[in-house]
Amino acid sequence: MSKTNESMMQRRVAAVPRGVGQIHPIFADHAKNSSVVDVEGREFIDFAGGIAVLNTGHLHPKIVKAVEEQLHKLTHTCFQVLAYEPYVELCEKINARVPGNFAKKTLLVTTGSEAVENAVKIARAATGRAGVIAFTGAYHGRTMMTLGLTGKVAPYSAGMGLMPGGIFRALYPCAIHGVSVDDSIASIERIFKNDAEPRDIAAIIIEPVQGEGGFNVAPKDFMARLRALCDEHGILLIADEVQTGAGRTGTFFAMEQMGVVADLTTFAKSVGGGFPIAGVCGKAEIMDAIAPGGLGGTYAGNPLSCAAALAVLEVFEEEKLLDRCKAVAERLTTGLKAIQAKHKEIGEVRGLGAMIAIELFEDGDHARPAAALTSQIVARARDKGLILLSCGTYYNVLRVLVPLTAEDELLDRGLAIIAECFDELT
């Protein structure tokens, strides 16, 4: 009997816990660049990119070749037992790419959550302090510490009880929801006044562009004031670039556009081109704060993933993907703003580079987030062959994370489907 999405969903429900969500009731069979074909043979345009993992597209030939070559040489030793060159080479290249005119070192791990966990560990060891300030709307992962940092209870930590202590929540600036830069800085000052002395705070962690929170872009003047605040109190600034990294925003790291540099930077997702790799890069003296044996992991910096990441960096150079990102961003932004002009439900088109989102409101009223319409658009687009993602604190944001390698014709087809969905549903 041939496989169908419905039959596969039945098997999934019986075998996989319900806590593992699934946005689209589709089972992928194979993919290429920006298109995915399901088990029934239907092709979809991929505007999700595996949630920002596939900036270089599905199965980029250069990445596939690099992994195939590595597969025949070495798949695993555990770097802490027997080291291998691809790990060191990747760290050297990341050190050169992360913003900051100072000596850097890089730790490789496997997931974004793991990178953030280690960044906090390093910050605590380097400062001798324990507290961390994170922001409203933040998403930093699903492990226990990162769930505490993540600024959204449902669904990520619902029913799991209280998360680890020593975490304090500041306001992320967001003009459309009435939070100014002054409001955000004042919220940090309130933490210092009401909850924890600055000398007890090891780090402030921030996404330069929020991911799950709705693609809110941190204003440059806010980042400058945040950097000054950290310097004043000896607090480390951690930039979580798990979703913004690897060229999504038009520079390899979004902090390159923020006018200031972080002490520690986390990265993952598209750096591996579809293979699981993540890491922390920071000032050498901070990264060396933990004694030998305090950092690492069995699969951390796996040889296959290192080979893939090194190929990703080459693809960015050879195909000039940062320039391509700017072209993709312009095409998407122009198309989405044309749709906005016809539909008052779209309150804002925003983002940085090709990290673009639109926020929906009922009748254009910014006090009434349109979560239901957002969900309907995602479902209708799927029916028409386009894979979209939603996000946002109020579940009312549509985000686009299409591979930077997508052809203009495919981008236009995706935009046309989004336009059709709005025409039919509003």
How would you describe this protein?
Its EC number is 2.6.1.48. This is 5-aminovalerate aminotransferase DavT. Belongs to the class-III pyridoxal-phosphate-dependent aminotransferase family. This protein has 426 residues and is of the alpha/beta class. The chain contains 13 helices and 15 strands. It folds into 2 domains: 5-59 and 320-425, Aspartate Aminotransferase, domain 1; 74-318, Aspartate Aminotransferase, domain 2 (3-Layer(aba) Sandwich), CATH 3.40.640.10. The protein has helices spanning 5-15, 49-52, 61-71, 85-97, 112-127, 144-149, 181-194, 220-233, 284-287, 303-318, 321-342, 371-383, 408-425; strands spanning 28-32, 35-38, 43-46, 104-109, 131-135, 167-170, 201-206, 236-240, 264-267, 278-283, 346-352, 355-360, 386-387, 389-391, 397-400. Strands 4-10-9-8-7-5-6 form a 7-stranded mixed sheet, with helices on both faces. It has a 4-stranded mixed sheet with strand order 1-2-3-13. Helix 3 (61-71) packs antiparallel against helix 10 and helix 4 crosses helix 10. It is globular, with a radius of gyration of 21 Å.
